């Protein structure tokens, strides 16, 4: 199994709709480590690490978001796996 890292920026109605909490839940379900946070400009930023299939599943969730969210754009930068995190956190 291949491991990977994804640095994600999500644009749209993504704050105030439990985006971070739902992203954390999805990450935990898939065994993905990293973090998610709100940015001052209204976007959500996240960093995911784990098995490639699992990371892709969480990125796919972020491309749609939870109920109440509207994702207008998502930017994903694929990076080398660093095994930097012990768990998944809301920053």
Structural notes for this entry:
The structure is a single chain. This protein has about 90 residues and is of the alpha+beta class. It has a single domain, classed as Alpha-Beta Plaits. About 25% of the residues lie in helices and about 40% in strands. It has two helices and five strands, in the order E-H-E-E-H-E-E. It has a five-stranded mixed beta sheet with strand order 4-1-3-2-5, covered by helices on one side. A hairpin with a 5-residue loop joins strand 2 and strand 3. The radius of gyration is 12 Å and the shape is globular. The relative contact order is 0.35.
The largest beta-sheet arranges its strands as 4-1-3-2-5
Structural class: alpha+beta
Helix content: 25-40%
Number of domains: 1
Large-scale geometry: globular
Q: In angstroms, what is the radius of gyration?
A: 12 Å
SS summary, helix count: 2
The CATH architecture is: 2-Layer Sandwich
Query: Uncertain segments of ≥5 residues (pLDDT<50)?
Result: none
Give the helices and strands, then pairings.
Blueprint: E1 3-13, H1 19-30, E2 33-38, E3 44-51, H2 52-64, E4 70-79, E5 88-90
Parallel strand pairs: 2-5
Antiparallel strand pairs: 1-3, 1-4, 2-3
Helix pairs in contact: 1-2
Task: Give me some keywords for this one.
single chain, 91 residues, alpha+beta, Alpha-Beta Plaits, five-stranded mixed beta sheet, 27% helix, globular
Could you provide a short overview of the structure?
The chain has 91 residues and is α+β, with helices and mostly antiparallel strands. It contains 2 helices and 5 strands, in the order E-H-E-E-H-E-E. The chain has one domain (3-86): Alpha-Beta Plaits (2-Layer Sandwich), CATH 3.30.70.100.
């Amino acid at each position: 199994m291949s491991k990977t890292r994804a640095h994600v920026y999500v644009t749209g109605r993504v704050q105030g709709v439990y985006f971070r909490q739902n992203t954390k839940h999805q990450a935990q379900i898939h065994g993905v480590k990293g973090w998610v946070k709100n940015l001052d400009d209204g976007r959500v930023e996240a960093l995911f690490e784990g098995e490639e299939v699992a990371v892709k599943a969480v990125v796919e969730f972020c491309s749609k978001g939870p109920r109440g969210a509207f994702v207008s754009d998502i930017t994903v930068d694929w990076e080398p796996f660093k095994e930097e995190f012990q768990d998944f956190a809301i920053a």
